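ESCALATION

Customer reports they have been waiting on this structure for their group meeting. Please prioritize. Original submission:
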Amino acid sequence: MLTAAHCVTTAAGVNDPKPYHVRVGSLDRTRGGEVAQVDEFVVHPGYQAYEDEGSAHDLALIKLSSTVSKKPAPLASRTPAAGETVKATGWGYTKATGNDPSQLPVMHREVDLPVLAPAPPSAPPARRTGTPGASGRETSAPATRTATPVPAAATRGLPH
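Update from on-call: job pushed to the front of the queue and completed.
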């Protein structure tokens, strides 16, 4: 599975995957679909926590401990051009919450975002816009459909 690196890291490094699970095949993060435990987070080697949020390096793969039969959300079928609109989807935080799992939305959300043109090499990078990340800074999502891992504590006591 693909997610943003800032969702699975802190300034101290990559989060322990043991308390995490993912739900595949449901738009409700608390029920339906299929649940699998996370075995490992593999963060892009160029990612630097809190410095790369919203950059091309803000990527991580989620290795599951078991195979799932449900189909994941599809990735973009082509690279969108600057000015086109893409959808960012998931259950991630939409404001600074101190990583409080009770503040995660229950239902899947999506937002349309414009694709920005790359900055010329001699110019400073453009400020990316998007939704505030857990740190309160703005982040942007890749032009893909992604799954955001939900800490097991966020759904403790709820049926899997």
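Sent to customer with the following note: The first strand starts at residue 2 and ends at 3.
Escalation resolved.
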